[in-house]
Amino acid sequence: MTKLATEPVEIAAKCLACHIRYTGICAVMSFEELSEVGRKTIRRTFKAGTPIFFEGDNVRAKNIVKGVVHLSKGLSDGRQQIVGLQFSSALLPARISQVTAQAATDSELCAIPNALLTDILGRNPKVEDAMYKQTLDELDQARHWMLSVGRKTALEKVASLILMFVMKAGPVSGIGYQCDLPLTRTEIADFLGLTVETVSRNITKLRASGIIQLDNGRTVTVNSLPKLKRASGD
Q1: What radius of gyration, in Å, describes the C-alpha atoms of the chain?
Q2: What is the dihedral of CA 195, 157, 202, 69, to 10 degrees?
Q3: Is 53 exposed, middle or buried (0-12, 13-18, 19+ CB in 10 A)?
């Protein structure tokens, strides 16, 4: 019997049913490697607002299966700043963490034993390439937000963030681009370096101009993607 024929039997059920099975590092793993990962990884769920790990923790590599995770840095006086967002299929690497990670939405993460990941990296250069590409993508995103926070107007900042959220979520059949905002307005203000009042005022501007709809204070529907892109300054 070929490996292809036995794949549904040998790969763990949690991996077969996983919607990131064909994205991120899992997409480039061999059949044998994915079988081993399925046997040895641990899935955990985190409610929105729950810390996943703290700055200074020695953390195990974690794949984000579902949800959005925000990363923050702290100052000695207790102040916090959100410095990044991670979405489904992103890998949080094994390391002494330089940030605190918190579930921005209800999230599910898959923890990979460090020894197993190191072994796979030594055997499969495609996994290493996928991790390298993610690092470059994160660097590009950080540069983009440096531009946004440093040079864009408040309206452009808010529009840029909403644009990123809906593009990450992808189009919804029969609706177009729609998503639930994964951050509260306070968190959006923190991330963009604005006040909560300024964030609310500019969301209202986008609604009034017909670019977006906002239901229940959280669900954003984009009426015109080109107009949202123009409003973002991109």
Answers
A1: 19
A2: -70
A3: middle
Distance CA 66, CA 76 (A): 32
Tokens 């955990």 locate to: 44
User: CA-based angle 151:155:160, to the nearest 5?
Assistant: 75
- How big is the chain, counted in residues? 234
* CA atoms of 205 and 227, how far apart (whole Å): 13
Do 191 and 161 contact (CB within 8 A), yes or no?
yes
Q: 59: which strand partners?
A: 95
Measured CA to CA, the distance from residue 138 to residue 1 in angstroms comes to 42
DSSP alpha helix (H) spans, 45-124 = 114-123
Mean pLDDT of 201-215: 96
14-51 core/surface letters (b: 16 or more CB in 10 A; e: else)? ebeebebbeebbbebbeeebbbbbbeebeeeebeeeee
The two beta strands, 42-46 and 80-86, are unpaired
Cβ proximity of 116 and 72 under 8 Å: no
Instruction: Let me know: does 111 contact 44? Beta carbons within 8 Å.
Output: yes
Give the pLDDT confidence of 11-40 residue by residue, as tens digits: 567 777 788 888 889 989 988 888 888 889
pTM exceeds 0.85, yes or no: no
pLDDT at 9 over 50: no
- Supply angle C-alpha 179, 182, 188, rounded to 5: 115
Phi, psi of 220 (to 5 degrees): -100, 130
